[in-house]
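agent> call fold_tool(seq_1)
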Amino acid sequence: MPADRLKVDVEGRPLELSNLDKVLYPAAGFTKGEVIDYYTRISPVLLPHLADRPVTRIRFPNGVDDKSFFEKNKPAATPDWVRVETLPAPGSTKGRETIDYVVADDLPTLVWLANLAALELHTPQWKVGEHPDMMVVDLDPGPPAGLAECCPVAVLMRDRLADDGIDSYPKTSGKKGMQLCCPIAGNQSADDVSAYARRIAQELEKEHPKLIVSKMARNLRPGKVFIDWSQNNAAKTTVAPYSLRAQRAPSVSTPLTWDEVEAGARGRKPAVRQFTSAEVLDRVEEYGDLLAPLLDGGPELPAR
């Protein structure tokens, strides 16, 4: 066996890891071995959020400074123990009717994906064979607005959703913005969820036009926070909680407390920011899984 390959057993599954010393985050000197270590250590809180959801991967074989590619279909030489679900492919750019999706339900599959340099893991708002059980509100700041400007918008959105009995849980995107995740009943279509999210976004834009925009046009976004309600489209995915992101440092889509977001909305420290993988492991040690309530289901959305 080549010196750069290592045979391991992960929960009874044989894996051959390769190029563990390969640097995937050059600015931070963060290697593929460290990526695998992070995903292994974060797996107790990450795997429940991946369970039963087809996972789209963004792979960076030569690191974040080089080319990447989206991968929905199962890769070549997928082990026979990896769960694969053949599902309709709405909006496929390649004209496919179905895609053989990987479902990362267990640690061996997660380690296998990390070994393929699948740094980013994205999932839809629905589980295999079911309607959406989560609504996502993506807060996308238009420069020069940033994460700080997302905080007051997040609080406004939280309070408005609470009026309808909808709980929301914040996380960073791991890049420039923030997302609110809302557990819902799972008996309404993606179109219904998108329509509701759009209506609330439009209400808030009308009330706070200098802060919020709900329209897709990019020329309207500078200096404002775009509330992207369209993330709830059945064909779209959102970065999974605790997933790495392809930034200079190994940043992570990180669950936040509402105390942190409210402090950010008031401009107080400690300000909300993007967190690295090491910091996220420490946060999980301190807080546990702040997004655990997403796993317990939620209410039906109000009718239009």
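agent> call fold_tool(seq_2)
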Amino acid sequence: MDQHQSAVVCYRHPDRETGIRCTRCERPICPDCMITASVGFQCPECVRTGSGTGHAPHANQPRTLAGARVAADPRLITKILLAANLALFVAVQAVGDKLTADLVMLGQWPHDSFYQPTEGVAEGQWYRLLTSVFLHQEIWHIAMNMLGLWFLGPPLESALGRIRFLALFLLSGLGGSALTYMIADPGQPSLGASGAVFGLFGATAVLMRRMQYDMRPILVLLAVNLVFTFTWSNIAWEAHIGGLVIGAAIAAAMVHAPRDRRTLVQSAACAGAVLLILALCVIRTLMLSG
């Protein structure tokens, strides 16, 4: 089979183009339908009817591209992340600046009168690296980030699986916070899920390349967002770049890992990202405390 031929549509989802076919029946299948087999991918019908590789029943359980079990709702984690962001946004609108001051990404408390007496990451409040990812103040800000999460999240969650997708989102957000902490003004607060969303951009580009899809749409969209990142005022570009790099790196490990060492490679990539984030934060804390 020539996988470089013109893309056709998935036999189960006519609105989705794909360049992948079932290794048994050669029907075209999209990421939601493809099930990892001993060689290539198979469609749900071939697995269900037992016309696949002939492995034991548990070996034929549907798997995502990254090796996770196919979930009944491939948007569950995306919905939970959306709900968490929206719930915190409502709480911020109700409580006001006090909650924002307690959760915003802040390297070191600048003793500005705007803030309630508090401290920053350099003074031990490392939780701000994560809480700030779910924190928004302006309606346009959360609207843009949640639109990005809603459009990019489900395809990635479907291809990676729930746990892997959640790890991708959280580590991308933490990567954005860590780079912001490392090189930005420590007294300048930042907030929002933009770093995590840029991580999803990077992961989507990696996934599309892995699936041999036309990458021009995602590359153009990413380029437009990067232009906005560096031209609009009051944007923490460090968070965008940090999230983008971490998201692309983790996604590459998840979709390109050898099948016989897939879990090991994926776990090592996530652990490496955690260690890098911790190293940046420790170095910056020592710099600000010295």
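agent> summarizing second result for user.
The chain has two domains: 1-63, 76-289. The longest helix spans residues 262-289.
agent> awaiting next instruction.
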